[in-house]
Design a protein that fits this description.
The complex is a heterodimer.
Chain A (H helix, E strand, L loop, with lengths): L1 E6 L4 E9 L5 E5 L7 E4 L6 H12 L5 H12 L1
Antiparallel strand pairs in A: 1-2, 2-3, 3-4
Chain B lengths: L2 E13 L4 E6 L31 E9 L4 E10 L6 E5 L25 E2 L10 E3 L1 E2 L11 E2 L4 E3 L2 E7 L11 E8 L1
Antiparallel strand pairs in B: 1-2, 1-3, 3-10, 3-11, 4-7, 4-9, 4-12, 5-6, 5-11, 8-10
The chains are: A alpha+beta, B mainly beta.
Chain lengths: 77, 182
């Protein structure tokens, strides 16, 4: 069971595997190879799509230091 | 002369209006995400079970001493990667009273209001905007700059969420609050 969700690490919408944690929280794990980033919501969540919209808005545009280091290596050859 | 800065943190049952923690700890020099809301509890005695979450840490900045103005606040996780299976969720950007975080009694449930994924270290220039107000982090009147002394940031809340992580201590990471003063 998957849902398309914005992945903060990949900085794009990717398929996330949907599951439950042992405490009944909703867990969505990015299925992109070597990513594994997950997003978790409380067990009483009702407005999932609203929360996912807020999640995408809040995390779009993040540039990790790791990504900047790779870019610097490319720039200086 | 310069402003005196300290991180403070709220804990305990929510109280008052606007809400804040029952207990306010001043001069916090480090924080540990753990299965306890008590600041003094040793984290190694309160491990987070895999699949669960830490209690949120309701951190905030506190400015006193001598200054004209505090402004241009930014907050981010700026150094050291977490291991696999760990997600750090943090406070959204504060651009006014309408989107400041409101303190709630800490529990280990995933705190949906923490919309920013702070798992990766980023440059502080990309951090979330932080606003300031008099009285406390819970107070209204949040603004991009503040001349009132003392003044406080909005809550800089974080929660460590775990799913499939290895047992043991996490890496020691750096959270940065940057501000200008004049």
């Amino acid at each position: 069971m998957t849902k398309d969700i914005f992945c903060t690490k990949e900085q794009k919408v990717t398929a996330h595997e949907a599951s439950l944690t042992p405490t009944g929280e909703f867990l969505f794990t990015c299925t992109t190879e070597d990513c594994g980033r997950f997003i978790k919501f409380p067990a009483d969540t009702e407005n999932l799509d609203e929360l996912l919209t807020a999640h995408e808005y809040a995390n779009t545009g993040q540039v990790s230091i790791e990504a900047q280091e790779k870019k610097l290596e490319e720039l200086i050859g | 002369m310069a402003a005196t800065f300290a991180f403070d943190a709220d804990h305990g049952v929510q109280t008052g209006s606007p809400t804040k923690g029952t207990t306010r700890t001043a001069g916090v020099t480090d924080v540990n995400w753990k299965n306890s809301d008590v600041h003094a509890d040793v984290y190694s005695s309160f491990p987070i079970t895999d699949g669960a979450n830490s209690y949120p840490i309701w951190l905030f900045g506190h400015f006193s001493g001598t200054f004209n103005q505090i402004l241009a606040g930014l907050f981010a996780h700026t150094a050291t990667a977490f291991g696999a299976g760990l997600t750090l969720k943090g406070t959204p950007a504060c651009t006014g009273d309408g989107d400041r975080l409101l303190y709630v009694t800490p529990t280990t449930a995933a705190l949906a209001a923490l919309t920013v994924d702070m798992t990766s270290a980023i440059a502080i220039a990309s951090g979330v905007a932080v606003f300031f107000s008099a009285t406390g982090p819970e107070a209204t009147g949040k603004a991009a700059s503040m001349t009132t002394n003392p003044c406080y940031t909005n809550y800089l809340t974080t929660q460590l969420q775990v799913s499939g992580a290895a047992a043991g201590d996490t890496a020691q990471v750096t959270l940065t609050l940057q501000y200008n003063e004049n």
